[in-house]
Amino acid sequence: MKLRSTTFLVHQYDEAIRFFVDQLGFELLEDTLLGEGKRWVVVAPSESGASLVLAEAVGQEQEQQIGHQTGGRVSFFLSTDQFWADYTRMKSAGIIFLETPRQETYGTVVVFQDLYGNKWDLIEA
What we know:
It is globular, with a radius of gyration of 15 Å. The model has no long low-confidence stretch (mean pLDDT about 95). The protein contains 3 helices and 9 strands. The chain folds into 2 domains: about 1-65, Roll (2,3-Dihydroxybiphenyl 1,2-Dioxygenase, domain 1), CATH 3.10.180; about 70-125, 2,3-Dihydroxybiphenyl 1,2-Dioxygenase, domain 1 (Roll), CATH 3.10.180. By secondary structure, it is of the alpha+beta class. Strands 5, 6, 7, 8 and 9 form a 5-stranded mixed beta sheet that branches. It has a 4-stranded mixed beta sheet with strand order 1-4-3-2. A hairpin with a 2-residue loop joins β2 and β3 (about 40-45). The chain has helices at about 15-25, 60-65, 85-90; strands spanning about 5-10, 25-35, 40-45, 50-55, 75-80, 95, 100-105, 105-115, 120-125.
């Protein structure tokens, strides 16, 4: 088995697509209308094998979870073999980094946030 996708709560499909595709450089794998305003929207880093299913929040309970999906911890880990090129591209695209890149025993890492405030690691092993 392998983990294929995970749900990612968003306020609005199109703003989330713009963030993931235009700023992070992900690919839009699917955007299918399901009726009644619902869509099946899937984004992923190229060749990753794992994807995010963007789910537009419905109701107050889901809305309150946007940006807090893991209680303030780093939520997602984005691996790269071109750390400095990706870091520079992302910074130029307006990604907000919460620290300067640092060297750890496991590699080069920096924490950034998505458009809702969820924390991500960009890591090169």
